[in-house]
């Protein structure tokens, strides 16, 4: 049974994701509901991060904060959740430590360790384990009342595997490199298991009301071209291939799919043929070069300014916007670009600088 909600008043993102000609590029930013907003800290209070994710009322309130603050400038909401809810659903403990980030007290150690087999063999009831995400999505759709579309998301198998093995953030990626270069087959079994859960989790999010989905491969850039082809790309393709089939089996219409293989600029050409409607990119890629690589393929780009420009002056923000607009927009026939940053917005940014970023994109792209 498909849920019904108020009709969309602003469908720019959906049209742009489908490659249609639009009056201006839609805009939103990754991590738009987060620590740079004073109202985020206020609403979160002393609560634990994952507790907020598990409370649909809190999660929907946080999701709506940037929509309210940037009303008229922002064209999508992204559900307040985290990529690490999947390892949690797989039975792993994940904590969020203030000012440090995620922490797994028991990361996967080696294929001979009992925990690896246990996680691999465990039958995960995704719909049940992550029901709180779906409740938050449905409630957020109601509260949005058609203002902008709602994006659902998951972490990519490679990125999730990194966290499950490293146990948190890392600079060296020594554990996960040990896994893939010593135990490639055991690694691939786990990557495949995660990929199947990603498909399930995205399908449940769409059933609950997500109108677009994004797969975050935040650590794709840690792999060289050959290793990326072996340990990341096949699982991203599994998701884009299986999700529409899974949705069809549930009698639910498919939605546009976004992939963000951060740092994998060397793989942009093949990313444009992975079955995703939208390819996100970070600031290591020049917009004009990206457009050349895409050629005539009907793929929309998303990105890509360095989030660090928001620490800079108004002039530096304008310069970054001009580079994106000239590369992604001018000469592309008013299509093929969703404006975003090249990664999540960072704590400490002045929210008014994000407003200025949006206003500059608007000013430099509106049709005369
Ligand atoms: C790698 C990753 C994670 N989570 C996510 C990614 C992929 C995107 C990326 O690469 O940035 C995805 C994510 N995390 C969060 C969202 C919410 C929606 C949105 O984009 O506004 C999304 C889409 C909230 C969050 N997720 C987290 C916060 C901060 C929690 C807090 O209040 O302290 C928020 C608002 C915590 C989190 N969650 C994660 C880390 C590494 C951290 C801590 C460190 C950091 O933020 O830099 C894992």
UniProtKB/TrEMBL annotation:
Kindly state which keywords UniProt assigns to this record, in alphabetical order.
Cytoplasm, Decarboxylase, Heme biosynthesis, Lyase, Porphyrin biosynthesis
EC number(s): the record gives: 4.1.1.37
Q: Does the keyword Cytoplasm apply?
A: yes
Pathway involvement of the protein, from the record: Porphyrin-containing compound metabolism; protoporphyrin-IX biosynthesis; coproporphyrinogen-III from 5-aminolevulinate: step 4/4
> Domain Uroporphyrinogen decarboxylase (URO-D) spans what residues?
26-35, 151-167
Read off the CDD domains from this record. Answer: URO-D
**Single GO term (MF):** uroporphyrinogen decarboxylase activity
Q: What class of enzyme is it?
A: lyase
Q: Which cellular compartments is it found in?
A: Cytoplasm
Reaction it catalyzes: uroporphyrinogen I + 4 H(+) = coproporphyrinogen I + 4 CO2; uroporphyrinogen III + 4 H(+) = coproporphyrinogen III + 4 CO2
Q: Which InterPro entries match?
A: UROD/MetE-like_sf, Uroporphyrinogen_deCO2ase_HemE, Uroporphyrinogen_deCOase
Could you provide one GO biological process annotation from this protein's UniProt record?
Answer: heme biosynthetic process
Keyword Cytoplasm listed? The answer is yes
Q: Which GO terms describe its cellular component?
A: cytosol
Q: Output the Pfam families linked to this UniProt entry.
A: URO-D (PF01208)
Tell me where the signal peptide lies. Answer: none
Q: Which family does it belong to?
A: Belongs to the uroporphyrinogen decarboxylase family.
Q: What does this protein do?
A: Catalyzes the sequential decarboxylation of four acetate groups of uroporphyrinogen-III (octacarboxyporphyrin) to yield coproporphyrinogen-III (tetracarboxyporphyrin) with the formation of intermediate hepta-, hexa- and penta-carboxylate porphyrinogens in the heme biosynthesis pathway. Acts on a number of porphyrinogens, but only coproporphyrinogen III can ultimately be converted to heme.
Under what name is this protein listed? Uroporphyrinogen decarboxylase
